[in-house]
Design brief:
- This protein is of the alpha+beta class.
- It folds into three domains: about 90 residues, Dna Ligase, domain 1 (2-Layer Sandwich); about 130 residues, D-amino Acid Aminotransferase, Chain A, domain 1, CATH 3.30.470.20; about 150 residues, Rossmann fold (3-Layer(aba) Sandwich).
- The chain is built from 13 helices and 19 strands.
- The strands form five sheets. Strands 8, 9, 10, 11, 12 and 13 form a six-stranded antiparallel β-sheet that branches. It has a four-stranded antiparallel β-sheet with strand order 1-7-2-4, covered by helices on one side.
């Protein structure tokens, strides 16, 4: 689950991580009132930032022709005008795709006087099975761009989960960024706070880009100017307050429907719908579809112990995607019984009506013979296959022939 920038800053603040003062608004009048309060508190420059689950907002463009989802201003009337230009409009960035995202909220906050920018993130490195703190002296850029152009400027600090993130590690990282004296102490505290946020909220990602050194009346300070957070869905039962931050308006309707049936579904840009049990097999399925010239339309994992109703729901969800021109159901029966899967497929196909796209089913493992028998005797136009490559080729060729 992802959350908005303003929500990420609220969570970070619980762990002592500072960010510029600001509030979120859902109407231009609210934005103007927030700007009034900030100006009265002594802020000279403000920024109005569109709140969507995507990066690249500053360089984005709205479908109405206006440019930029991050805009500077110095008066309440300007803040209200910027909010009016953004709210209700669709913002397209390099991460949203051409369909863009509708802006329903804006963040109005102080525009800090930035002197230096850094990159800071906490991720889980599955290769070493440990959390890793990642930082770079090149902030305000995509980390992929930093890795490509300046790999020597990326520092990785693995964390022993048994010992935890040690104070000396935070000081070492702060020193790598060039901090000394009081700034080293405050930056170390900030890095510790970012790690604690990641660890204690069961986040999968906390990304601060940029982490900035800003000029203040009493000297310099480090602030989180932008923040991104993602969470492990399987841990949200432990964090009801974070679960309440979920914004369904930022999610695909099909992904929302899938979550209601405890299915893992992610919409992709291809035309081959994939229904698979197990995340590893699902990824292998998508890979082999691409290897034979196709493009997967989704990632859909029904899990290792799905029942007939979940399989029916999964097939219906795939068929609701107008981009799907063929479907591959790839099941390996371990705990799951292939005959239950087959019956779910048959029941779903009959409920939906005549199948208008090719359907290829590959069953292997527990009760696969019985499952294939159910499919054969159903009278439905279902293509069967024994191996994964055979199944992938069948569905891609069937889609090509139907065009």
């Amino acid at each position: 689950m992802n959350i908005h920038e303003y929500q990420a800053k609220q969570l970070l603040a619980r762990y002592g991580v500072p960010s510029p003062p600001g509030e979120v608004a859902a109407a231009p009048e609210e934005a103007g009132a927030i700007a009034d309060r900030l100006i009265a508190a002594g802020e000279k420059r403000l920024v109005v930032k569109a709140q969507i689950h995507a990066g690249g907002r500053g360089r984005g463009r709205f479908k109405n022709g206006s440019q930029g989802g991050v805009r500077l201003c110095s008066t309440a009337s300007e803040a209200a005008a910027h909010a009016r230009a953004m709210l209700g409009e669709v913002l397209v960035t390099r991460q949203t795709g051409p369909e863009g995202r509708r802006v329903n909220r804006v963040l109005v906050e102080s525009a800090s006087d930035i002197t230096r920018e850094f990159y800071l993130a906490v991720i889980l490195d599955r290769a070493i099975a440990r959390p890793v703190v990642v930082l770079s002296t090149e902030g305000g850029m995509d980390v992929e761009e930093i890795a490509e152009k300046h790999p020597e400027k990326i520092v990785r600090e693995p964390v022993d989960p048994a010992a935890g993130f040690m104070p000396y590690q935070a000081r070492k990282l702060a020193a790598r960024l060039g901090f000394t004296g009081d700034m080293l102490v405050s930056a170390s505290s900030l890095i510790v706070g970012v790690f604690r946020t990641w660890w204690e909220t069961d986040a999968t990602l906390v990304e601060i880009n940029p982490l900035c050194v800003v000029q203040q009346a009493d000297g310099h300070a480090s602030l989180v100017v932008d923040a991104k957070m993602s969470f492990d869905d399987n841990a949200l039962f432990r964090h009801p307050e974070i679960r309440e931050m979920r914004d369904l308006g930022e999610e695909s309707p099909l992904e929302i429907e899938a979550s209601e049936h405890n299915l893992s579904y992610i919409k992709l840009a291809g035309n081959i719908g994939c229904l698979v049990n197990g995340a590893g097999l699902a990824m292998a399925t998508m890979d082999i579809v691409q290897s034979v010239g196709g493009e997967p339309a989704n990632f859909l994992d029904v899990g290792g112990s799905a029942n007939k109703e979940q399989v029916k729901a999964a097939l219906k969800i795939i068929l609701k995607d107008p981009g799907v021109q063929g479907i591959w159901i790839n099941i390996f029966g371990g705990i799951m019984q292939c005959d239950i899967i087959a019956q779910g497929v048959v029941d779903a196909a009959r409920e939906i009506g005549p199948l208008e796209v090719p359907l290829v089913v590959r069953l292997a493992g527990n009760n696969s013979d019985l499952g294939n028998q159910i499919l054969r005797e159903s009278g439905l136009p279902i293509l069967s296959a024994d191996g994964m490559e055979e199944a992938a080729r069948k569905v891609v060729e069937a889609v090509t022939c139907c065009r």
